[in-house]
Amino acid sequence: MSAPIACGYSIAISMPDEAKPSQDSLKESQDMETVQLAIHDAPYALALRDQLERTGAREVRCVEVPDPRREGVIVVDAGALDRLPVPFLNPERVVLITRNDPQHLAQAWNAGIRSVVFNEDPLSTAVLAIMAVELRVPKSSAIREGSA
Q1: Rg (CA), the chain
Q2: What is the CATH number of the domain that holds 83?
Q3: Phi/psi of residue 141, each to 5°?
Q4: DSSP result, 81-138
Q5: Assigned domain for 41 exists
Q6: pLDDT digit string (tens) for 68-82?
Q7: What range does the domain containing 137 cover?
Q8: pTM, rounded to two decimals
Q9: For residue 82, what pLDDT is reported?
Q10: What is the per-residue burial (b if ≥16 Cβ within 10 Å, else e) of 43-67?
């Protein structure tokens, strides 16, 4: 199970009862696309999370290890890629953020990952790659308990 983190920072928020989300807003959040960010460069992860939240209706979760059972897009850096289970089912859901290194690119290709963004590319390129995966991959692509 992936544990949410705040993209490199610990944040604790307490809400008064009147500020807590209603059942309608909870249902809306269940219909939202989910993006799991497993990127250890905290400033990059925070900036990407902010861009993603501004560009559409999606839940962005910062995680140490992505949960492949959760629907949506998984964005990883090279370190997180090494921690993904092998073989990784539904690699079309993964966007790799990495440096332009032949070894990392070969590892991604061999794992079936086809969406790669270089860490020197503008954030808008990463956002575009994530949006492309959201459009390309059906919501039912997550691995369900017991089906792996």
Answers
A1: 15
A2: 3.40.50.2300
A3: -80, -5
A4: HHHS-SSPS-GGGEEEEE-S-HHHHHHHHHHT--EEEETTS-HHHHHHHHHHHHHHS-
A5: yes
A6: 889 999 999 999 988
A7: 34-141
A8: 0.76
A9: 86
A10: ebbbebbebbeeeeebbbbbbeebb
